[in-house]
Amino acid sequence: MIPRRSPLQRSGPPQRKTPLPRASAPIPRSSLKRKRKPAASAAKDFAREYGSRARVKFVSRLPCAACDYAGPIRRDNAHTKTGGTSRKGPYTSIIPLCVAGTPMNCHGRQHGVNGGWLKIGMTAESRARAAANTEAAWLEHRAGTDDDESDGTVDTFEDAA
User: Fold this and answer.
1) What is the pTM of this model?
2) Across-strand partners of 94?
C-alpha cells in the first residue's frame, strides 16, 4: 500500500451528479391515520370477542378465576387466548380477573411488568378449565336454571362449573 502524504479533505457533504426527481404531488398523509371500523364491523367483532353485553356484565359479577376474590368490585373479562396478531380471542376463552382496587389486582399483575399468567398462578390447563367453567356458568344462567341466585352472581368460582 502506498502511503499518502496528505489526508483527503472534503469541502462539504457528498454531492450527487444528477438531482433526485421530485414528486409531482405531495404524498397524502390521510392514509397513515388509523381509521375507525364501520359500526357493523365493530359490532361483529364485539360479538365474536365478548358475546353480548349481558354476558360481559354476568362475567364481571363472577369471582376472580385466579384468587377467587368475590368482593363488591367488578372483575374484568380477560381473554385467555388470542385470535391472532393484534386480535382478541373468542368469547368462550374469557375468564373473570379482579381489577385495581382489589387485594390482588390479578388483571393488572397479569399485564404488568414481569407479568404473565404464571405470575398470578395460572397455567394453560387452569386457564382452559376456568374458561370452560365461565362458559358453563353463562349457559346455565341463560337457560334460567340458576334459581338460587336471582342476580346471576356465584358464590365461588368452582360453583360455576
Assistant:
1) 0.64
2) 79
